[in-house]
Amino acid sequence: MNKNISKTASIGDSTTTGFNVIIFDDVKIGENCAIGNNVIIYEGTAIGDNVRIDDNTIIGKKPMSSPRSIFKAAKDLKPAKIGNNCMIGANVIIYAQCKMGENNLVADLATLRENVIINDYNIIGRGVSIENFVKIGSRNKLETNTYITAYSEIEDYCFIAPCVATSNDNFMARDPERYKHFKGVTLKTGSRIGTNATILPGKIIENDGVIAAGSIASKDIPKEEVWLGTPAKFYKKVPTTQLLKNNLDKK
């Protein structure tokens, strides 16, 4: 079986590896893991127990930057870390200095950049892109083709529907003033965003706030309110039956 596994790598009991697997120096993989075919795991990556990594996935990739990039890729990034009981799909790329907690699912074709922190029990859907310097709490759902811009924060129990887009540059790459104002979006605990909505830079969705499908959030969304339209405006209060406090036993 064609494999290239470093002698300094540590692989736990009952862990299996597929064809054409490449595991670099000082990688640590726990017990009862399943590593698929054509998987590449870069130096120093730490993977917990009972982790599944599907075909063609790359863990610990180093970032690159263009001469025109505003922020240059750091050269001293720490290895990626993946906690116990995670499931990583096919063709996923997880960069160096990405830290993931336990019991997360990352679906096929997702990309998690460097300096991303993800806690526990999250669902990261197919084709989701999470840029650098993003913090994600626990028990969130990011559905297919969601785009989370750099410097964003998502707390707990948030729901982001398919094809949601977030942004962090109000100047659209023009005017040096933009360097002072880069800011991603903030989703407070229990907030929700409907399909194909767009969130403008620096906007905050407060606890249990909702942005309706197809809307453009150009202002902060208050607690427990539904906003709708382009630009989004107040539509109604979130129904009591949908508040997070009345649904925690169903999660």
Mind sketching the topology for me?
Elements lengths: L2 E3 L4 E2 L4 E2 L3 E3 L4 E2 L4 E2 L4 E2 L4 E2 L4 E2 L4 E4 L19 E2 L4 E2 L4 E3 L3 E2 L4 E2 L4 E2 L3 E3 L4 E2 L4 E2 L3 E3 L4 E2 L4 E2 L4 E2 L4 E2 L4 E2 L19 E2 L4 E2 L4 E2 L4 E2 L4 E2 L4 E2 L7 E5 L2 E6 L14
Parallel strand pairs: 1-4, 2-5, 3-6, 4-7, 5-8, 6-9, 7-10, 8-11, 9-12, 10-13, 11-14, 12-15, 13-16, 14-17, 15-18, 16-19, 17-20, 18-21, 19-22, 20-23, 21-24, 23-26, 24-27, 25-28, 26-29, 27-30, 28-31, 30-32
Antiparallel strand pairs: 32-33
Strand order of the largest sheet: 3-6-9-12-15-18-21-24-27-30-32-33
* Tally of DSSP helical segments: 0
Q: What does the overall shape look like?
A: globular
How many discrete domains?
2
Give the name of the CATH superfamily of the largest domain: Hexapeptide repeat proteins
